[in-house]
Amino acid sequence: MFEPAVTGPVTLPRIEREVFALRQRLDAAAQTLSDYESQVAPIRDAFAPQIRRHAAEIAAVKVDLIKLIAAGRGLFAKPKSRTIHGVKVGLRKEPDRYAWPADDALVATIKQLCTPEEQKAYLVTTTVGRKDAIPADARKRLGIGCTPGTDAVLVDELATGTGAALLALLAQLPVPAEEAA
Which of the ends of the chain has fewer CB neighbours closer than 10 A, N or C? Predict the structure, then answer.
């Protein structure tokens, strides 16, 4: 770690002077930030209704687009996604999901039907099924259902980052009085 050279004696009054200088600078920065916020707040508040309206319109169009793509899955067989007008749309692969009635039942079934070596591979020391380690034929024998990964609808605005900017602005806006009540 770098330690700057200190010249002169180190005393509590000297440290106190340095802390006072730091406090003055912190207070000045806090005042500047407060002035900035007081200047920006009216502008931000003036644009808040438009920003909210745009966000609501974008959300509604995005929901409609997701429904449209979901209904036309066949159009996205190969390639699964396309970039149209700077927006990536199509399908993306979702991971497989495994399901069983309850962890306790699965553990009991594994202990009943599997060899000690298989039990060691399929169970962790906390006695929870390791679904990712159980091969397909053993999952079937143990009664573990598998919902294959699906192609989830993808709508990702790429070109401008406008969606992300809107979300960031929305997070900063005060809650309107009618919503706060």
Answer: N
Its domain, for residue 167, covers: 12-76+163-172
**pLDDT for the residue 131:** 64
Tens digits of per-residue pLDDT, 155-173? 666 545 666 777 777 777 7
- Answer yes or no: is pLDDT of 180 > 60: no
| 34 occurs within a structural domain | yes
Q: Residue 94 is encoded by which pair of tokens?
A: 């979702």
Contact between 100 and 146 under an 8 Å Cβ cutoff? The reply is: no
For residues 144 and 106, the answer to whether their CB atoms sit within 8 Å is yes
> Is 43 inside a domain boundary?
yes
Helices (H), 11-101: 12-71
In a domain, 111, yes or no: yes
pLDDT tens readout for residues 131-158: 667 787 887 788 787 777 777 766 666 5
Residue 66 belongs to some domain of the structure? yes
Shared domain check, 108 and 70: no
SS3 157: strand
* Cα–Cα distance measured from residue 53 to residue 56, given in angstroms and rounded to the nearest whole number: 5
Mean pLDDT of the chain: 80
| Of 169, 152, 170, 171, the residue nearest 88 (C-alpha) | 152
